[in-house]
Amino acid sequence: MFVRFWNTKIATFYEVLLDPFAFVVRSMKEDVANLIAPLMLRPITRWPFFAFLGGAMFCLLASSTCHLLSCHSERLTYIMLRLDYAGIAALISTSFYPPVYYSFMCNPFFCNLYLGFITLLGVATILVSLLPVFQNPEFRTIRASLFLGMGLSGVAPILHKLILFWHQPEAHHTTGYEVLMGVFYGIGALIYATRIPERWMPGKFDIAGHSHQLFHVLVVAGAYTHYQAGLVYLKWRDLEGCRGN
Ligand SMILES: [Zn+2]
Fold first, then answer.
1. Is residue 37 part of a domain?
2. Which sites bind Zn(2+) (predicted)?
3. 65 CA from centroid of ligand 1 (Å)
4. pLDDT at 224
5. How close is the Cα of 44 to the center of ligand 1, in Å?
6. Of 89, 94, 120, 139, which has the fewest beta carbons less than 10 angstroms from its beta carbon?
């Protein structure tokens, strides 16, 4: 893969040296083709991708607001911290929309089943994050398990997608991104539940490097990986629609 990438780069370099005019004309043709193709191909609906982007924006907005305002008072910290977790639950549940929709858009039964299940689980996790009764320290593990459970529930649709589209390179490509996303979210939940690294050196990470910050960084990394997978899905379905199903 890597060697092929560099071979293409070197080939392009020689092409520019030998005939710059032909190269410019060809790249202009490619640009025009890229502009026209979506109009000709009738692009697939974008709402699941926008739902994911909306969930990610809500999550980042909620956590920015939380960390900006939580120093105001103890009461506000209490409310804001709950909003922080609700934002993350919204991000994880909306993350399922693009892969589930674009994998199963030609099988409405499984599409609705997986989307319905993750929506219910997402709403339950948001409620648990917001209800005061679940904020006590003894519920820390339960809250972390709910987040982890939500992430793990992605295994079924991903395996199902691989079985259905084993012949399709996009299925493997997106699964690679999804596994990476799972690793980021999984480590994030683990760090959150175990309070690493401040449990080893209390007081040393109060300003920077404590578990909650690492948790947020990993959530952003997971969301970005997922965004890349979403682009692969869009390109695949824009080009092929329901062919090969
Ligand atoms: Zn936070």
1. no
2. 67, 212, 216
3. 9
4. 93
5. 35
6. 120
Query: Which amino acid type is present at position 180?
Result: L
Tally the domains of the chain.
1
pLDDT at site 36: 61
Give the structural domain span for 149. Answer: 47-240
Structure tokens at 121: 């689980």
Residue 49 confidence (pLDDT): 94
Distance (angstroms) between ligand 1 centre and the Cα of 178 equals 23
In a domain, 33, yes or no: no
Q: Does some domain include residue 2?
A: no
Cβ neighbors of 48 (< 8 A, separation 6 or more) are 97, 98, 100, 101, 102
Quick check: is 226 in a domain?
yes
Pick out the residues of the known binding site for Zn(2+).
67, 212, 216
pLDDT per residue as tens digits for the range 173-228: 999 999 999 899 889 888 988 888 989 988 888 888 899 899 889 989 999 999 99
